[in-house]
Write a structure and sequence with these properties.
The chain is α+β, with helices and mostly antiparallel strands and 145 residues long. The chain is 30% helix and 24% strand.
Length: 145
Amino acid sequence: MDTAQFSITRLTIDQWEKARASIMLFWDTTPSHETIAKFLSNPQNILLSAEVGEVLAGQAIAYMLERWDRDEPMLFLYSIDVEEAYRHQGIGTALIKAARSLGQAESCSEAFVFTNESNLAAKQLYQSTGGKRSSPDDIVMFEYD
């Protein structure tokens, strides 16, 4: 299989249009300029874009979270998304590596990510990038409106 050459970029407020296109591609929403600008202007928030040439192929969203129990923040890998046509070419791995590098540069003590038990592709990706399952099978997430 041919592997595509790709680039990974942390999007800044000056790249809000690219950020909006990325969010619209992977999430069923159209955020406003103000929402994107607010997100990108916060240094604790990370939006990475993966491109093959000029084509958007993937994105990662992560947050550096302050801790109450130690001085170092931790990195929450919120979402890793790769267009189906570009999967299995190293893009997801590169997005995780880039996010973790940014976290390490900010002295994050650890990184973590959640996925569903049924998401085999995500579990394989996280294991292949050094992730270790730390939660028992009975972890349940609750959401509040």
